[in-house]
């Protein structure tokens, strides 16, 4: 045992903890991280950059607890302090970017909603190849309903992850967000594009084309994908009112799973009405 | 009484996530508790870590089939989680879950499972049993 070394280390940790406590909310977050670090054998000095990210985020009015939580996660997973410093710095940068995006779209949000929006947008930015898309979206939907905005950012990120070019995703979603579609329908697009690709759809143009076609006719966005189709474009084309419902292309199915020929055979052509969906955002 | 921001956040984000995510196998929920299961036949111990418990490992019990299981109370909300596995030789690893509503890049070179514990119609935790669902980001 080395009493002198122990004492110096102990005093250093004590000093760091005391400093953290003196820093208010950021200090208590830092203390929690320091305590956990000590329990897994990570020294306070090695955590200085991570603690600086926590403190910096708090100073900027960002949700510093998210950075502290990421630090706790890293410590639980045995991540090296250097890697932890990098990941927490990246998270702080995403939160800063998210705050800018939110301020563009919703400049007059109350504090609680700002926190929710910043957390949500930062999560969408994680791993996004073209983060500028969300800034563009914020400009496009500026002043829009809070929940619609959150839904739109999520949907753009989901569509981009499924391979839709970010610019195209932004354009598509901003158009839907400004229309009367419910948040549920807009949010479903990411899952539907995923299903489309799972069914073998490679060319994304038929998918976005059908979305735009339905949007132009105020039709429901549900049931875009044909799970039983055998074509390379497994799309269910919703019938157009002006074509009496007979607009499913050869080999494609409508929202009821019928081809154009089946519609005629079953006498159901034109029965399915357009489904305008009222936007019913759920305010928290 | 004001509703805490975290509950609002969970409700809003969970709603969006639930709409955005394709159905997937998820941990079971019953009476406000979530059942976590992880298959790790050679492991000495396994703990579940997540944003619901401050990433402090909660011990899991070994089952006859080699899996580890635990029921934990988890308030309604959206969470990230993984498993901390200690092998018989003392080596510690982190495993992504096999079942989750979705998976997220954890930034450390692995993935976290995403768990959404829904509110009931009265804004309380789900106590009727069933499956958790999502979503996200």
Helices and strands in order:
The complex is a heterodimer of chains A (284) and B (137).
Chain A: H1 3-21, H2 25-39, H3 48-59, H4 64-76, H5 81-105, H6 111-125, H7 132-140, H8 146-161, H9 166-177, H10 183-198, H11 205-216, H12 260-266
Helix pairs in contact in A: 1-2, 2-3, 2-4, 3-4, 3-5, 4-5, 5-6, 5-7, 6-8, 7-8, 7-9, 8-9, 8-10
Chain B: H1 5-20, E1 28-30, E2 33-39, E3 43-50, E4 58-59, E5 61-62, E6 67-73, E7 77-87, E8 92-95, E9 102-105, E10 111-117, E11 130-131
Antiparallel strand pairs in B: 1-2, 1-11, 2-6, 3-4, 3-7, 5-6, 7-8, 7-10, 9-10
Can you walk through the features of this model?
- The complex is a heterodimer of chains A (284) and B (137).
- Chain A is mostly helical.
- Chain A contains twelve helices and no strands.
- Chain A has helices at 3-21, 25-39, 48-59, 64-76, 81-105, 111-125, 132-140, 146-161, 166-177, 183-198, 205-216, 260-266.
- The longest helix of chain A is centred in the first third of the chain and has 25 residues, at 81-105.
- With 137 residues, chain B is mostly beta strands.
- Chain B contains one helix and eleven strands; from the N terminus they run αβββββββββββ.
- Chain B has one helix at 5-20; strands spanning 28-30, 33-39, 43-50, 58-59, 61-62, 67-73, 77-87, 92-95, 102-105, 111-117, 130-131.
- The longest helix of chain B has 16 residues, at 5-20.
- Chain B is globular.
- The A-B interface holds A 32, 36, 69-70, 72-79, 83, 87, 90-91, 112, 115-116, 119-120, 123-124, 126-127, 147, 150-151, 154-155, 157-158, 183-184, 187-188, 190-191, 194-195, 282, 284 and B 3, 5, 8-9, 11-13, 15-17, 19-22, 49, 51, 54-57, 80, 82, 84, 92, 94, 104-108, 110, 112, 136-137.
